[in-house]
Design goal:
Elements: H1 3-14, H2 18-37, E1 42-44, E2 48-55, E3 58-61, E4 68-71, E5 74-81, H3 83-89
Antiparallel strand pairs: 1-2, 2-5, 3-4
Helix pairs in contact: 1-2
GO biological process, one term: chromosome condensation
Protein name: DNA-binding protein HU-beta
Family: Belongs to the bacterial histone-like protein family.
């Protein structure tokens, strides 16, 4: 499912216009992104939670040449599925 299909499904399920569903989805995504940028955590009980994990700088290897390269430190987004979502998917 891509973004436009999700918007269509949200509109049909909630009985709202596609424009309203698109606005709601974009607002949700902006809120999650903003919270994660600040180092926070977003948790939807039963669905799952998003958090940030810091990945340290490290040495890597170029597979073509075998030469050692430096890989910069970065923040990584993690998602952990909640019990209800996990149960629904694994029925």
């Amino acid at each position: 499912m891509n973004k436009s299909e999700l918007i269509d499904a949200m509109a049909a399920s909630a009985g709202i216009t596609k424009a309203a569903a698109k606005l709601a989805l974009e607002s949700f995504l902006e809120s999650v992104e903003g919270t994660l940028k600040k180092g926070g955590r977003v948790s939807l009980v039963g669905f799952g939670s998003w958090s940030i994990s810091k990945r340290a700088a490290r040495d890597g290897r170029n597979p073509q040449t075998g030469k050692t390269i430096k890989i910069a430190a970065k923040n990584v987004v993690k998602f952990k599925a909640g019990a209800e979502l996990d149960g629904a998917v694994n029925k």
